[in-house]
Design a protein that fits this description.
The structure is a single chain. This protein is globular. About 30% of the residues lie in helices and about 20% in strands. The chain is built from 10 helices and 11 strands. It folds into 3 domains: about 110 residues, 3-Layer(aba) Sandwich (Rossmann fold), CATH 3.40.50.720; about 100 residues, D-Amino Acid Oxidase, Chain A, domain 2, CATH 3.30.9; about 100 residues, FAD/NAD(P)-binding domain (3-Layer(bba) Sandwich), CATH 3.50.50.60. By secondary structure, it is α/β, with parallel strands linked by helices. A 5-stranded antiparallel beta sheet has the order 6-7-8-5-9, covered by helices on one side. A 4-stranded parallel beta sheet has the order 3-2-1-4, sandwiched between helices. A hairpin with a 4-residue loop joins strand 7 and strand 8.
């Protein structure tokens, strides 16, 4: 059986898991960047030891597990979806960039998944009434502030206002994430410019340390946050959803990418040891394991109360996707 996976970190975990469960399968990885896992290597935390560890882990897919990598390949420009479908038995496609809308994939950015609409009918992601703000501040500009090496969150008097900060690039930069309520602007995007003065004014009553971080911001992006209600099923026949297409969530627990990676691990385990006829049942087992967990994270993220007054986080961080029971799944090697 031949499988192609493309364009997303969670798909790397899918490729890794598939080859672990089925080393006899042929897996090819396509990416628009020139090297494997370029978003990790070239990302804002590319020099972080954790990022390097992820890169080394994924390189073993090609060095030891036999996957092939094809870089500088853009869907639509260099290869069509129809060509991939014709060349492979299965295609795992993560088309998450705005430019993918020009490739005949519709609004293919997770929460607006055309695959989800094709499987389950039209839906309407709901605007939360929240705007997210993102900025990066040089550490040197706020060097006198405490806790710069910590993950810090300031809750506002209402759930719609919050500020989250954590270090990037070996601690040389500080990432700033904030949300405010706004009902009359619903545009989405990673690079939409925001007004720094507006951001600062929205948090004028926050802690002095939080205000100092915002004062150091020279530019900021903003984006409206949308959600979908938790779904009762993710698969139809031999097609299944994964990641934001299945469970889009607001980032207040920082679990969106984590849930996608867990999806990839459980999916690869569910598919281990099955033939083509067994795929629909394996996908049903996959969704049965994952939906209760991701639904809980979706709901708790939106409530924005998690760990506000302490509590136990083991139900989030203690989950092991490699060992959670899957009906009729072969045990992980």
């Amino acid at each position: 059986m031949s499988v192609v996976v493309t364009l997303d970190l969670a798909d790397r975990f899918t490729a890794q898991g598939l080859l672990k469960a089925r080393p006899d399968w042929a897996v090819d990885v396509y990416d628009s960047l020139p090297v494997p896992f370029g978003l990790v290597r070239y990302g804002v935390a590319a020099d972080h030891q954790g990022s390097k560890a992820i890169t080394r882990q994924f390189e073993r897919i090609f060095e030891r597990q036999g996957a092939r990598f094809f870089g500088n390949v853009s869907l639509g420009r260099d290869v069509t979806l129809e060509a991939l479908r014709g060349a492979y038995d299965a295609v795992v496609l993560a088309a998450g960039l705005a430019g993918d809308r020009d490739h005949g994939l519709g609004e293919a950015d997770g929460i607006h998944s055309p695959v989800r609409r094709a499987l389950f009918g039209e839906d309407d992601p709901r605007f939360t009434g929240l705007i997210s703000w993102r900025a990066v501040v040089p550490r040197a500009a706020v060097a006198d502030l405490p806790n710069l090496d910590s993950f810090t969150k300031w809750w506002g008097p209402t759930p719609d206002r919050q500020i989250v900060t954590f270090p990037l690039s070996r601690g040389e930069e500080i990432f700033v994430f904030a949300t405010t309520g706004q009902d009359d602007w619903t545009e989405e995007g990673w690079t939409l410019p925001g007004d720094v003065a507006e951001l600062r004014a929205a948090f004028a009553d926050f802690h002095p340390e939080a205000r100092a971080l915002l004062a150091a911001c020279t530019e900021v992006t903003r984006s409206a946050l949308h959600v979908c209600e938790p779904m009762a099923e993710w698969s139809r026949g031999s097609v299944a959803l994964l990641g934001d297409a299945a469970h889009p969530m607001v980032p207040f627990m920082a679990q969106g990418a984590c849930m996608a990676i867990e999806d990839a691990v459980v999916l690869s385990r569910a598919l281990g040891g099955v033939d083509a006829q067994g795929i629909p049942a394996a996908l049903r087992h996959y969704q049965a394991v994952r939906i209760p967990r991701t639904s809980r994270v979706q709901e708790r993220s939106l409530a924005n109360e998690w760990l506000k007054e302490g509590g136990n986080a083991d139900w989030v961080y203690g989950y092991d996707a490699w060992s959670v029971p899957i009906p009729d799944a072969a045990p992980a090697a």
